[in-house]
């Protein structure tokens, strides 16, 4: 049915000035965005919990889970200390070589900068999780989970899709297997 009116104005009251929840481009408050992101992450966590724990072909033995939980904060600290000189060197070298890398092609220079930024964010998040990992709190576990999501997103943006997915699946399997060892 064509009425000659622009689409959305055919018959009925005007909706100007009132936001339409389904309308794209509608301004959202920071609280709305935060709530939406939190909801998406909660759904992802519930889905992964189902696949990595409930539907997993095998569960890790309790002794292995206990070992992983005891050792993981120390491993985070050790790997962060080992990565720090590499990241600092990469930052120093990138200031000198990124202009040349960008001339060499879009992919390498941008991919290297994204990987470097994501690595710094992930290491900071994991270091923030260390006190919670020592205390075995769910907050520490969640920070490691969020760091794994950031790492996966960084891998996808850097076009390391296969490696990012494989790393995320292995990491999430271990992370969700030990989730019940962390309490609120």
Plain-language structure description:
This protein has about 180 residues and is mostly helical. The protein has five helices and no strands.
- The number of distinct helices, counting runs of at least 4 residues, comes to 5
Structural class label: mainly alpha
Major β-sheet profile: none
Uncertain residue segments: 1-20
Any idea what the shape is?
globular
What's the arrangement of secondary structure elements?
Elements: H1 30-54, H2 62-104, H3 106-135, H4 138-157, H5 161-177
Brief sketch in words of this structure:
With 184 residues, the protein is an all-alpha fold. It has helices at residues 30-54, 62-104, 106-135, 138-157, 161-177.
């Amino acid at each position: 049915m064509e009425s000659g009116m622009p689409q959305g104005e055919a018959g009925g009251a005007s909706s100007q000035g009132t936001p339409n929840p389904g309308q794209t481009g509608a301004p959202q408050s920071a609280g709305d965005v935060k709530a939406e992101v939190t909801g998406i992450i909660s759904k992802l966590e519930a889905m992964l919990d189902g696949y990595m724990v409930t539907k997993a072909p095998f569960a890790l033995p309790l002794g292995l889970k206990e070992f992983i939980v005891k050792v993981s904060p120390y491993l985070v600290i050790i790997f962060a200390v080992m990565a720090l000189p590499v990241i600092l060197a990469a930052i120093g070298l990138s200031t000198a070589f990124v202009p040349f890398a960008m001339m060499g092609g879009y992919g390498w220079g941008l991919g290297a900068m994204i990987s470097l930024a994501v690595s710094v964010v992930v290491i900071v998040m994991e270091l923030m999780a260390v006190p919670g990992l020592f205390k075995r709190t769910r907050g520490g576990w969640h920070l490691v989970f969020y760091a794994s999501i950031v790492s996966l997103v960084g891998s996808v943006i850097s076009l390391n899709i296969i490696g990012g997915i494989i790393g995320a699946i292995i990491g999430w399997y271990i992370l969700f297997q030990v989730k019940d060892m962390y309490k609120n």
